[in-house]
Amino acid sequence: MILFDSLPIPNPDPPASIGIYLDQNERIVMEGKQVSKQYVRSKVAQTRISDSAMTVTVYAQAKTNAGFLVQVLDEVRLGGVENVCMALDI
Fold this sequence. Notes:
The protein is of the alpha/beta class.
């Protein structure tokens, strides 16, 4: 006999999500404002402390420099998130 009191209760709150937008002029936009690569790392690390299941999605314009994209991805990883979703506007 299974008692409902003993079943785990799923977390009703979805994990935190951060969207990072990159353009072809090497600008980074988060939360509606232009930020630096260092801010990306800091914000990811800060959010990860409160929600280890957080997700990060990087949105890049078609002509975004690949090296710049990799630098931003590295900042996300240094902030503690290994799996990053990418959306490219091609």
